[in-house]
Amino acid sequence: MNDAPSTPLSVRNAIDTVLAQAAVPALSHTADTFKTGDPDAPLTGIVTTFLATADVIRQAADQGANLIITHEPTFYSAEDTDDLSWLEGDPVYQAKRRLIEDHGMVIWRFHDYWHMMRPDGIVTGLANLMGWTVDPPAVSMHDVMQMQAMTAGNGWDKRIAGAATGIATIPETSLVDLARQLKDRLGAASVRMIGPDDLSVRRVGLTLGALPGKMTIATLQRDDVDVVISGETREWETCEFLRDAEAFGRPKGMLVVGHALSEEPGMAYLAEWLRPLCPGVPVTHIPCGDPFRTV
Asked: What is the pTM of this model?
């Protein structure tokens, strides 16, 4: 019998397990990297969240966790690279960095691979919250990225872009009633809506987060989609397509719930998904909340 103590699981071990389970082809460029802390530290607990705010960091530390898996950037930039020189000397950045270091917190981002899983982990989370079943997309977000759909339209193929969206079939309802359901389930202060109040809805495209306008429009161009749910959107792209669609007798709808609220359920689902992969490690979800208030 071997009485030697087992080697404790490190943060890096846990992340390696996550990526292996995701089963997504390795990306040559990804934001899913360690942002702070020592990845080789023994893992004491995991917190999932949409965004590692100061409050989330404090709550994670209070729970004894030393790994935060965040969906979006910790330091305010979409590029999310290691080059933070543009924040040098900024007191807000310095205070947040100090908070993270004082608690020995490791922050790792899980964005690209979580979206590229089939099914998309973020989409699954919202669908589970709403009690919906989502049709598996014909192509993955990985396929969309491969054709560089996110870069100035180069290589754009609307058939691929539209086919990458998860579509839910729901009991028939009106657009305004669907907006009310979302507002209630998400705990949103408000839901922004485009389209006729009485638009009949059965097929919902889950274009969550902040997808490019061309991808959201490609989803709306599908004959089997009545409405899309978005986190945030440029107001002169999809919004204006829908305004013109109604003006020319082809009404469809869009509900905009806010980026954080649209994707937080997917990070709550991540905590469920992680627990069997890290037995004996406390895994919890801490919502960061909607940064906006409505007056």
From this structure: 0.93
How far apart are alpha carbons 103 and 45 in whole angstroms?
Answer: 13
Decide if 47 contacts 60 (C-beta within 8 A).
Answer: yes
Is 70 exceeded by the pLDDT of residue 2?
Answer: no
What is the DSSP secondary structure assignment for residue 29, as one 8-state letter? S
Pairing of strands 34-36, 106-109: antiparallel
Query: 282: number of CA atoms within 13 Å, CB side?
Result: 15
Q: How far is CA 85 from CA 10, 54, 204, in A?
A: 29, 21, 42
Amino acid at 286: I
- Statement: residue 77 has pLDDT above 50: yes
Q: Binding-site residues, please?
A: 71, 259, 263
The single residue listed with the structure tokens 């009991």 is 171
What's the rounded Cα separation, in Å, for the pair 273 and 288?
Answer: 19
Question: For residues 99 and 143, what is the distance between their CA atoms, to the nearest angstrom?
Answer: 38
Give the chain's end-to-end CA distance (angstroms, integer): 67
- Quick one: pLDDT at residue 136? 84
- Residues making up the annotated binding site for a divalent metal cation are 71, 259, 263
Read off the tokens for 91: 């007191």
Structural domains of the chain, with CATH: 11-114 (3.40.1390.30), 121-259 (3.40.1390.30)
Determine the average pLDDT of the residues in 25-39.
Answer: 94
Judge whether residue 130 has pLDDT over 70. yes
Structure-model confidence comparison of residues 144 and 194, the more confident one: 194
Distance CA 16, CA 13 (A): 5
